[in-house]
Write a structure and sequence with these properties.
247 residues; 2 domains; six-stranded parallel β-sheet; three-stranded antiparallel β-sheet; 9 strands; 37% helix; binds 2'-O-acetyl adenosine-5-diphosphoribose
Length: 247
């Protein structure tokens, strides 16, 4: 029964001091942002993999920028939901809490999370393809596509990780270290099909951590979960948190 599962999740968390949350697009679904593989996940009929790639950018930077400009505009309009808020509160609840996200929307930070490990970069960073200068830019929509570097004039690119690109080394090192050392890994709103990020779930399970999956549908790694909360994160996480606060 779902209520028992919420209780089991709270029990595992209550006994833990080292906790990692690993999130994907589903944690932002209740804020109103489309997931990648759900309905509405296509962009102008294209799969994300066909837009979010270095080859796509080389072939047509304006097209790729239109995709990211739209995502920036969408993300700028929405607010963190109760799932983001609970995860932000958990940084005070556990002596070691690390939030690792595949999301680029900045909603975890908007909810107050600090030190978020952003494995796939951020929509709000922009990087020059010429001189490498990186800057934060929250203007949405951008006045000109593609944006150009004020220092060298080259085209800038979104500060996100594309398919075929390496994850930021410091991010993956920090994420792996946290996951290897954690007692509980809470996997929220990810289909767990994009590697190497999804590999973190196996690392945690192999290291003996209890994996809690929070997702209305089974992810590709659902079999690694010791506790499963089959429901939307914005409803499930506050229920777990209420038990933690209460007891
Ligand atoms: P996906 O779109 O693949 O998966 C979203 C997951 O969220 C699915 O498992 C849904 O069942 C679940 N979900 C939907 N609504 C939810 C809710 N309210 N609460 C909890 N879960 C919910 O998104 P990701 O797993 O984040 O990478 O995708 C991983 C990566 O693929 C992304 O970071 C991005 C993408 O292509 C890059 O751009 C490199």
């Amino acid at each position: 029964m779902l209520q028992d599962d919420v209780g089991r999740a709270a029990e595992a968390l209550r006994a833990a001091s080292r906790v990692v949350a690993f999130t994907g697009a589903g944690v932002s679904a209740e804020s109103g942002l489309a997931t990648f593989r759900g309905a509405g996940g296509l962009w102008e009929g294209a799969r994300v993999e066909d837009v979010a790639s270095p080859d796509a950018f080389t072939a047509d930077p304006v097209r790729v920028w239109r995709f990211y400009d739209q995502r920036r505009a969408n993300a700028a309009k929405v607010r963190p939901n109760p799932a983001h808020m609970v995860l932000a509160a958990w940084q005070e609840r556990f002596s070691a809490f690390t939030l690792v996200t595949q999301n680029v929307d900045g909603l975890h930070q908007g909810a107050g999370s600090r030190g978020v490990v952003e494995l796939h970069g951020s929509l709000w960073r922009v990087r020059c393809t010429g001189c490498g200068r990186e800057r934060e830019d929250r203007t949405a929509p951008l006045p000109e596509l593609p944006p150009r570097c004020a220092a060298c004039g080259a085209i800038e690119r979104p500060g996100v990780v594309w398919f075929g690109e390496a994850l930021p080394a410091d991010g993956i090192v920090a994420a792996e270290a946290a996951v290897e050392a954690c007692e509980v890994l809470v996997v929220v709103g990810t289909s767990a099909v994009v590697y190497p990020a999804a590999g973190l779930v196996g690392v945690a399970a192999a290291a003996g951590a209890t994996v809690i999956e929070v997702n209305p549908e089974a992810s590709a790694l659902a079999h690694l979960a010791g506790v499963t909360l089959r429901g939307p994160a914005g409803a499930m996480l506050p229920q777990v948190d209420a038990l933690l606060v209460g007891g």
